Amino acid sequence: MKPYILPAIRSMKDLEKLTKTDYETCVLLDTHIGHLRSMMHFMKQNQLQPFVHIDLIKGMSHDEFAAEYIIQTYKPKGVVSTKTKIIKKAKALGVITIFRVFIIDSHALERSIELIERIQPDYVEVLPGIADKVIHQIHAKTGVSVIAGGLIETAEEVQHAIDNGATYITTSVRQLW
Predict the structure, then answer these.
(1) Which residue ranges form the domains of the chain, and what is each CATH number?
(2) Which Pfam family, any one of them, does this sequence belong to (predicted)?
C-alpha cells in the first residue's frame, strides 16, 4: 500500500520525518515564501522530488507568474493548483501538473469535469479523498489519473480509495507514510 502514498509536507518536522522513509516524492503544502528556499534546498540535498502547491505559498501571488518563478528557480517535480492558468503555465514549462478540485455537490463535479477535459492535467486531486463515487466518475469521464486527498486517516481508507480508482493518496497522517 505504501507506494501509493504521496506524503503531504506542512513543516520542517514533516520533512525531517520524511527523510527517514523510503519516499522520494512529496507534496509541499502551507509554506511561507521566506522558508521556501531552505525547504527546497533541504529536499534537494535529500534527493526528494516535491510537488509544490502554488496556491498555498504564503506571501506570494497565486498566479501563473508565481508558478513560472517557482518552476524556473527551484525545479520541482511538479505543481499543484486549483487554478487553471497555473496548470496551463506549468504544462507549458514541462513539469507534472496536479489539478486540485473540491467536490462539494453535483454542480461542482460537473464543473470540475469540464475544467479537467479542457486543461488536461497529468493528475487530478479530488478532495475529499473519501469521495469514492467521485474518484471513479472523474477518471471514467476524463481518463485523467486521480489522486485522493483530504480526510484520509487510516490504511483502510487508503486501500478503499485505491480500490475505487485512485492512483495515489495524499495525506499528512505520518503513520501512513
Answers:
(1) 5-176 (3.20.20.70)
(2) G3P_antiterm
